[in-house]
Amino acid sequence: MDIFSPLKPANSLLTLININPQTAQFSLVDSTIYELFNSELYDGVWYCEKSHSRHIFISKRFNALLGYEPNRKLLWDAILHPDDIHKLQKHLSTICGQNEIGINEDLRLIHKSGDILWLQSHIYFKPQAEQDSQFIFIAFKNNSKKRVSELELIHQQERAHEILSDSSIGTWECDLITGESYSNESLATIIGYTADEMKNFNIDTWTTLTHPNDVLEANQLLEEHFRSKSSCFNNEYRIKHKKGHWVWVTSIGKVINYTKDHQPKRLEGILYEITDRKNNELQIQKYKELLEGVNKAAEIGVWEVDLETDKVYLSAEIKKMFGVPMSFEPTLEDIFDFFKEGESRQKVIDAVQNAIENGKNYDIELQSITADNKVIWTRSIGVSEFKDGICTRLFGFFQNIHEKTIASKKLALNEELFRKTFAHAPVGMAIIDLKGNISQVNKNLCECLGQTEKELLQNNFNKFSHPDDTNISNDLVGQLLKGKRESFKLDKRYIHKNGATIWTQLSVSSVKNELLEITHFVVQVQDITERKKNELLLVNYKDLLERSNYVAKIGSWEINVGDHTVSWSKSMHNILNTREHFVPNFNESIDYFTSNPKQKELLKSALNKSLKEGINFDIETLAKTYGEKQKWVRIIGISEFVDGKCIRLYGLIQDINDIKEAQLGITVKEEQWRTTLSHAKAGMALINFNGKADNVNKSLCDIFGYSMQEMQEIGIKDISLSEDLESNIKLMNDLIHGQSDNFTDDLRFLNKNGSIIWANVSVSAVKNDYNEFTHMVAQVVDITESKTNQLLLKEYKESLERSNKVAKIGSWKMDPETKSLNWNENLGRLLGNTEFIPQNLSEFINYFALEKNHEQLLILVQEAVNNGSNFDIEIPFKTTKGLRWMRLLGISDFEDGTCKMLHGLVQDIDDFKQAQLEIVLREEEFRQTFWHAPIGMALLDLNGKIIKVNPVICETFGYTEQEMIAIDKHVISHPEDTELSNKLIAEVLSGERESFQQEKRYFHKNGKLIWAILSISAVKNDQGETTHLVLQVSNITDKKLLTESLKEHNNRLQNYAHIVSHNLRSHTGNLSMLLELTEINNNQTYDDELYEHIKSASNNMNETVQHLSEIVEINNLIKDTLVPQNLKKRVNKAIENVKSTLNQVNGEMTIKINEEFMVYAVPSYLDSIVLNLLTNAIKYRSHHRLLKIEIKAGQKDGHTFLSISDNGLGIDLEKNGSKIFGMYKTFHEHKNARGIGLFITKNQIEAMGGSIEVESQLDVGTTFTIYFKDEKN
Amino acid sequence: MLELHSQYILKMKKIKTICIIDDDPIFRFGTKKMMESVQNSLNFLVYKNGKDAFDNLLPKLHLNNTLPDVILLDLNMPVMDGWQFLDELVKSPVAENIPIYIVSSSVDSRDIKRAKSYKMVNKYIVKPFSVSKVQELMEELENRF
Question: What are phi and psi of A1208, to 5 degrees?
Answer without folding.
Answer: -85, -150
